[in-house]
Design a protein that fits this description.
The chain is of the alpha/beta class. The chain has a single domain, classed as 3-Layer(aba) Sandwich (Rossmann fold). The protein has five helices and eleven strands. The strands form three sheets. Strands 3-2-1-4-5-6-10 form a seven-stranded parallel sheet, with helices on both faces. A two-stranded parallel ribbon has the order 7-9. A two-stranded antiparallel sheet has the order 8-11. Helix 1 crosses helix 5 and helix 2 runs parallel beside helix 3. It is globular, with a radius of gyration of 17 Å. The chain starts with a strand and ends with a strand.
């Protein structure tokens, strides 16, 4: 069990929840970070929920340090938490921009910083970021979202180069449309056919593949897309 302890952010729904479910099935200890755990309460003694608002930088760093102190065996970070806001850039207030980037970019950086120190003391581990196709190509009304995801992609690449000599593997997964509650309230969502979206479990299985790969191999970046990109707008 000492070699199978993962911290998962955004653990209560969507991709994060799917990852937690597969990790628990594989007998990992899972430390779940979310703002609201009421949506996911697994009856499993290997699941430990931590309530955190990742938009709050002080709260994020304090809880992360406390979590690693309580569970020093943690050697995997799956940095998944995020939200979507899609509007022309002039429609965002300064506070909305700050809150969005605090969650979708800064929280990933802060958690990684704390985790890298921890993993170096443990002689290695894994950091997996959940990016997006929006980090590969910018689109209208996705200015903030693409900014965060392009930033996360650059951070992942640079961090990998920085820490691989310390036996820390850094991977980035860039999914296209994934059928999750992410789209609730956004005014659009993937089409209804199975070919129109990736399922959260598909992404979770890729994460498990990254974790199970030979320790001397780094899966730097993985892009995923549905068979057909179909967006359905709410009426």
């Amino acid at each position: 069990m000492a070699d199978k302890c993962a911290v998962v952010t955004g653990s209560s729904s969507g991709i994060g929840r799917a990852v937690c479910e597969l990790l628990l099935k594989a007998d990992y200890k899972v430390l779940g970070i979310a703002r609201d755990h009421s949506k996911f309460t697994p009856n499993d003694t290997n699941y430990f929920p931590f309530e955190v608002d990742l938009k709050n930088q002080n709260e994020t760093t304090n809880v992360a340090k406390a979590l690693l102190k309580a569970h020093p065996e943690a050697n995997i970070l799956i940095s998944n938490a995020g939200e979507g806001r899609f509007n022309p850039i002039e429609n965002f207030s300064t506070s909305q921009i700050k809150d969005f980037l605090d969650l979708n970019l800064i929280s990933h950086i802060l958690l990684s910083q704390i985790f890298v120190r921890h993993l170096k003391a443990r002689s290695g581990g894994n950091i997996i970021f959940l990016g997006s196709e929006a980090g590969l190509t910018g689109k209208r009304k996705a200015t903030l979202y693409s900014t965060a995801k392009f930033g996360l992609r650059g951070f992942s690449q640079a961090l990998s180069d920085e820490v691989r000599a310390s036996n820390i593997r850094v991977s980035l997964i860039n999914p296209g449309l994934v059928r999750t509650p992410f789209f609730n309230g956004l005014g659009f969502r993937p089409g209804d056919e199975k070919t129109h979206a990736i399922e959260a479990e598909d992404v979770a299985k890729v994460i498990m593949t990254v974790l199970s790969s030979r320790s001397q191999t780094i899966l730097d970046e993985i892009n995923m897309s549905p068979a057909k990109n179909v967006i359905k707008f709410d009426s």
